[in-house]
Amino acid sequence: MLSIGREIVDAIVAHARRDHPDEACGIVAGPAGSDTPTRHIPMDNAERSMTFFSFDPAEQFRVWARMDERDEEPVVIYHSHTATEAYPSRTDIEIAGYPDAHYLLVSTRDPATTEIRSFRIVDKTVTEEPVRILDASVDPVAVTTYMFGQSPTTVDYECSA
Ligand SMILES: [Zn+2]
Predict the structure, then answer these.
(1) How far is the CA of 141 from the centre of ligand 1 (A)?
(2) Which structural domains are found in the chain, ordered by start?
């Protein structure tokens, strides 16, 4: 399962809509080993194509170097399909080199609705996985922190101490 913040999904969809009818691509980096996508990095589609994408090698080098500095990895690798469904093409499967990444596909073929699907691609085998979109307002960690800070017991204790 991919768990991803709504604001990141919104930014990815906005990028895909902006580049339509060309395919848009990018990554969402996150702390190594966390499986948590936190830093959205829209990238250039070097192909400028409606049917194919590839990262610009110089940009990819810079982005990957920055991730190394920050001890991050590409948690999500995304691109859009602009005329077909959000499912990896044969080429997508061929070039998928990150077995630990979530391959997120966005389809912008319908102007009114956006299709978002996520896959694992390991040894050229595609497995779809559920996408859980997290709202910042119901983030479990944020709720826990808030309740602890507002707990009457905690306040009483601090007052009497
Ligand atoms: Zn594709």
Answers:
(1) 34
(2) 2-160 (3.40.140.10)
Residue-wise pLDDT for 20-39, tens only, equals 999 999 999 999 999 999 99
CA–centroid distance, 121 to ligand 1, in Å, is 13
**How close is the Cα of 146 to the center of ligand 1, in Å?**
41
d(CA 110, CA 96): 26
Q: Any residues with CB less than 8 A from the CB of 154 and at least 6 apart, and which?
A: 148
Please identify every residue whose CB atom is under 5 Å from ligand 1, which is an ion: 89, 92
Residue 136 is predicted with a pLDDT of: 74
Decide: pTM greater than 0.70.
Answer: yes
For residue 142, what pLDDT is reported? 47
